[in-house]
Amino acid sequence: MKRTTHTLERFFKDKDGKVVIGQTPNAPILVWAVLLVANLFIHNSHIGTLQNVFLFVWAYLELTDGVNYFRKALGAVIALGIIVGILI
Question: pTM for the full model?
Answer without folding.
Answer: 0.83
